[in-house]
Amino acid sequence: MRTAAGLLLAVVSAMMLNWGFFVQHGASNKLPALSLRHPWTALRLLFTNGRWLLGYVVGLAGWGLYIAALLFAPISLVQATSAGGIGLLALFVWRVARVRFSRVEQVAIGACVAGLALVCISFAAGVPRPVVAGTRTVAIWLGVMLVAAGVAWRPGSRFMRPGAGLGVAAGLCYAAGDVSTKGAVSGVGLFLVPVLVACHVIGFVALQLAFQRGGALATAGMSTLLNNALPIMAGIVAFHERLPAAPFGVVRAAGFVVVVLGAAMLARPERPALQALEDGSASTVASPGPPG
């Protein structure tokens, strides 16, 4: 029952977080260029923009629900459920706004829902027992992710699409923050609280800068992929959330893979579902061309 409650919170959290991210993306693109050299000016531009602020507040509330979900369920299952939540959000908008999806969007939504269904089916084999992860293991995971984020932010970004390096850095930082959050609420140590705050702040900065430098696929798409996949891996490796025996273990692993890929496919600028929800439109929206 506790696990079911945690996963329900994860679904609602995912809907709020993803809606908030894409409202922020749309609002950021209409603002003057943001720069780390003028942080207070950048913050003033963001927090005085009503639409961006709405997306931020909704996303912040979604993050609070995510923390609550981690209190009830393993991080691997919570993260997989969160990844599938974007597909449920798109389905909801399809029913309410009557939008038309592209073929890629239909496949992505189907993958999210199918992956979430596979994860739910695997519950027949039970859920992992709570295990307190070792401090050293969690520290290694966090160290590797943060070093990789630093590489992606600066030197690595020269070999990627515009904004992709910052999107990767944001995803890695958010993933490190999620792992820190699970560690803090599961007994690893409260010293992780300032770590998770720092990770989310850095991820926030990276993502806002990425929004103005690249399309949603290269920015939110990369961030979503890493932010969903890495905590699932950390749950299995660092928090000892073992997969059940075959065949349910295979089903759960397949669900993890399918739902993360589906969520990444949906993180693209030509998503009429989220655009319709953001604009409050109930009319049919045609898909524009591929990102430029």
Description:
This protein is mainly α and 292 residues long. It has one domain. Helices cover 72% and strands 0% of the residues. The protein is built from 11 helices and no strands. The chain has helices spanning 2-28, 39-47, 50-72, 75-97, 103-121, 135-153, 164-186, 192-211, 217-237, 248-266, 272-279. The longest helix has 27 residues, at 2-28. It starts with a helix and ends in a 13-residue tail after the last helix. Residues 269-292 have low confidence and may be disordered.
Helix content range of the residues, please? over 70%
The total domain count is 1
Please report which band the strand proportion falls in: under 5%, 5-15%, 15-25%, 25-35%, 35-45% or over 45%. Answer: under 5%
Number of strands: 0
Spatial shape: globular
Q: How many strands, which pairing sense, and closed or not: the largest β-sheet? A: none
Sequence of secondary-structure elements: HHHHHHHHHHH
Count of alpha and pi helical runs: 11
Average pLDDT, all residues? 80
